[in-house]
Specification:
The protein has 141 residues and is of the alpha+beta class. It contains 3 helices and 5 strands. Helix 2 runs antiparallel to helix 3.
Length: 141
Amino acid sequence: ATRDVVETARLTHPERIIDVAADENAEIHIDEDDLYEAVRNLVDNALRYAPSSAVEVTVGAKDGFVTIEVADHGTGIPKSEQPLVFERFYRGSLHTDSEGSGLGLAIVRRVAERWNGRVNLESNANGTRVALRFPQAERAV
């Protein structure tokens, strides 16, 4: 699902750099549509709110968890707004003139919670990184 999101984003934004690096051992049990929707929202936000930045998507497995990160090198989210960005309909003071309903990150949080995952946001003047973390699926022997 993550690679599908990146390929679609590359087609719709051919002028943008969207990098992806994925560990092939990173497997999780999750509805593919839910995962697609969550990752798509993260990539769409990075493209929209960091318009001059490359977007980096990484998927890795470590210590029994799979982490999917989407990062940009935009201006970041003000610290005072960071606790609010996962609330429904919150759009932020810096982006009131842009399109969107303010539901994207609320959907990401809902998907994470539905599949026993977590979502973490780090943002400063050098960019924003959002990480989804899920329990790694047991591999069949």
